[in-house]
Amino acid sequence: MPELPEMETYREFLNHNILNKPITHVEINKEKSLNTGVQTFIDAIKGSNITFVKRRAKHLIFELSSGQYLLLHLMLGGLMFLGTSKNSPDRTKQIILSFGELQLNFIGLRLGYLHLLSQSELDEKLSDLGPEPFELQRDEFINRLKRKKGALKPLLVDQSFIAGIGNCYSDEICFQARLHPLRKASDLSDEEKNHLYDSFKPVLSRAVQFGGYMDFPMYEGDKQTGKYNENTYVYEREGENCPRCGGTIERVDHSSHKSFYCPNCQK
Fold it and tell me: What Pfam families does the record tag this protein with (predicted)?
């Protein structure tokens, strides 16, 4: 599932390529991806412009010139591709937004969605999300952590605790902090809590720099998106050598989550 770095990569790319271009055509191939009827959705957005694309947690928010918003969550397996009908990938597209010849394809929205919302509806939809990692202050993080007793892995992927982190980057953050992903939050020393906090921004910034781990191109000739796959520390590297100490990376399953870690340097 796309996490903060993947959605941030999408956000930055889209803000450079689709802003203030009129939506000339809307194709809906899966009504369940919407929160309105098909014609209602089309009538509301056709002819309007996307004035800005924001990210909140694992969502993208498309601000429309009409004053309404499109809220996107790609969920598991969702992708986007920007191109034309000539280079459109041979994949099922649930939704296509056209800007003249340019097409924004929403692919693999099996559980994902693109909802049309007012400002108040958008605020309500996102109200349960925790703070953004890049905006979270140290004191606030330490205070929030004090109230938690469970293991780090399920805590870090809990969107009400911190927004935007999932399976991949929770493992990478724990590695950076030298903490076992199943350590109890209540057992951490003050020093370890600070190490954990100090690991968020370096890991997530590095992932954004490498284009995240989603290895499907956003446009024809895209060589950057998904490069983090080649630069992960421990995620999906079971049996390989730890890049820090040379130990063997292992996998552990806990509470429906899989975690990858180095038992030698993540105690």
Answer: Fapy_DNA_glyco (PF01149), H2TH (PF06831), zf-FPG_IleRS (PF06827)
